[in-house]
Amino acid sequence: MRQAGRSLPEYRKIREKHDLVAITQQPELCAEVTLQPVRRLGVDAAILFADIMTPLLGVGLDVRLVENVGPVLDQPISRAEDMERLRPLEPEQDVPYVLRTLHLLRTMLPPEVGLIGFAGAPFTLASYLVEGRPSRTYARTKQLMYSAPALWAELMNRLAGIVSTYLTAQVQAGAQAVQLFDSWAGCLSVDDYRAYVLPYSANILRAVADAGVPSIHFGTGTSAMLEAMREAGGDVIGVDWRIPLDVAWQRIGYDRGVQGNLDPLALLAPWEVLANACRRVLTQGQGRAGHVFNLGHGVDPSTSPDTLARVVRLVHGEDA
Known about the structure:
Layout lengths: L8 H7 L4 H5 L2 H15 L3 E3 L6 H5 L4 E4 L3 E4 L17 H4 L1 H13 L5 E7 L1 H10 L7 H9 L1 H25 L3 E6 L7 H7 L1 H14 L3 E5 L6 H7 L3 E3 L6 H8 L4 E6 L8 H15 L5 E5 L9 H11 L5
Parallel strand pairs: 1-4, 4-5, 5-6, 6-7, 7-8, 8-9
Antiparallel strand pairs: 2-3
Helix pairs in contact: 3-6, 7-8, 7-9, 8-9, 9-11, 11-12, 14-15
């Protein structure tokens, strides 16, 4: 996961001098932060360091990234007139630093290490814009979704357009695969996901397919909607730790890859407990092509980098 850097002392040293937005807007610094987990941990791919709100900041939305809180919007979106704040993204003008970072990374990475771009999915982005900050209940989001379906459709269409443009620009700048993060879609019922979310994520994933690279469709708490996520698209479907990997893969279908699904907090367990959890995931993957071993969500900042590196060695077959 892209948050792997949060547990690294070299990343924390940079954060003492630069906030997250400042890092993402300085290509050389952003490339360095992106590369830190690759160097330290020996993972198979680099994941672009950026924030889920990066494209929305690019179009001029007044979002503050508050430490230990998350994205905060002082004037949440709630009315039709608010939609004008979500103009189409012009990547070269709005997020040139992201494109420059990707160009740099392609020259800096060895050819065997992949480069993955990423963006937030429309529902997850909408939840921040409507709530005004992170939420546990998504009450305002669901209220808008249920009570103003035309307004909801307009919001989701605009976000899908921004994200599609953002991800295809990342591909053109050097990303070899992209991941669509729908981190909070698990708060929905399957029926609501199909009605209010699936069509918009599907539009984005079709655009990525047309751009010619693989896509990873990620969610948490989405065990009930794996089939619907497959319908929305993605060459690889993210699976969290709440369902056995083999059960999830059977439901998704073996013509798709799966990503997952170690519980991030297992990384805080004694090594034998953690090693057994890793082996269980690998056994459930049955050695099939298309299994991307990963965590089910982000790395807890208290995780030891040495533990992360040892997990990578185990997965690579170098550590018993």
